[in-house]
């Protein structure tokens, strides 16, 4: 018992070493198994990835070939349709071009006829204008001759009347002057003779009275008074005659002045007549000048009309060229519109093919608004917009259904993108979990077999609508 005790620790150490060696062996065996399992799983995963890649490649190849075949048939049908449409359009365009050429020829012929008629009418108008100017010149010359003859006759009459009246006035003035001189001379001689007689008688009586006696003084004084009275009476008669002669002289002077005034009036009348003659001459010259100016104006208007006709012809040709260019541009624009419409129809047909049964039955979302809200919306749409953007949107109210369909498609596209992103995140998360699990824990074949369909399902790409 005592001898066995010292050996007990050695056996324990041996057992411990044995256990350690067994644990190490098991650990190495487990490590080897894990490495083998990891390599097996990696090989299987790589084979599965290769197989899935090959299957996807074959599927894509088959899908591409099917799509190419369908696209080829569709393009062939479109090409046949487009060739027929193009031939029809070419026939229509040829017919339109022929019609335009005929219309152009007719328009040119009409334009030439209109030009010939316009030129003939212009020549007729010029001939009429020349005849009218000739008639006007003849009438003007006749009027001028008549006015000249009338003026000369009136001038001769006025000159003759002026000469006769001046001769009469001269005779009257000379006779008046002679009568006045004779009357004045006779009155002066009578007055002087009477004065001399009276002076001589008075002197004789004074001498006789001086010789008489003082007794006869009163008789003499009376005689003197009588002589004086008779002298006064004789002198008063002569003075009355003298005053009468002075009055006649003044009257003759007034008559002479009146005749001079008449003569001045006649001279003024002659001057006015000469001024009228000069004014008539100026008016005749002005009428001649106006007639010449009217003729020049008519010629200028004729030249302007010819220029306008030339400009109208050039403008018509330019309009014709512009019309040809615009028709070509319109044809190109129509071709672009036809191509756009055909592309829209093809896209609509493709969209119709890709629609589901539910979309074919109910292509639009049902309205989520209540009845009152719908009525408010209708009232707002019926109101006349004020803002420019609202007015522009009002013009496209008929595209409301299209925008609903378009918005539905865009919403589905966004939902699919989000779903795809969520699935991609989930697939990445599962891969990370799988890698962590494979890195830390051994997995049995059964678990791997259960995980293979899930991995294959996650790796398959979803087809896009």
How is this structure best described in words?
This protein has 465 residues and is an all-alpha fold. It contains 7 helices and no strands. It has helices at 4-211, 217-354, 357-361, 371-382, 388-394, 400-440, 445-459. α1 packs antiparallel against α2. The radius of gyration is 74 Å and the shape is rod-shaped. The protein starts with a helix and ends in a 6-residue tail after the last helix.
Topology:
Blueprint lengths: L3 H208 L5 H138 L2 H5 L9 H12 L5 H7 L5 H41 L4 H15 L6
- Poorly predicted runs are 1-8, 458-465
**How big is the Rg?**
74 Å
What is the string of SSEs from the N terminus onward? HHHHHHH
Sheet bearing the most strands, described? Answer: none
Number of strands: 0
Distance between the termini: 90 Å
Summed over residues and divided by their number, the pLDDT gives a mean of 77
Approximate helicity band: over 70%
Tally of helical runs: 7
**Strand percent estimate:** under 5%
- Which structural class should the secondary elements be placed in? mainly alpha
Quick one: overall form? rod-shaped
Summarize the structure.
This protein has 465 residues and is mainly alpha-helical. Helices cover 92% and strands 0% of the residues. Helix 1 packs antiparallel against helix 2.
List its salient traits.
rod-shaped; 465 residues; mainly alpha
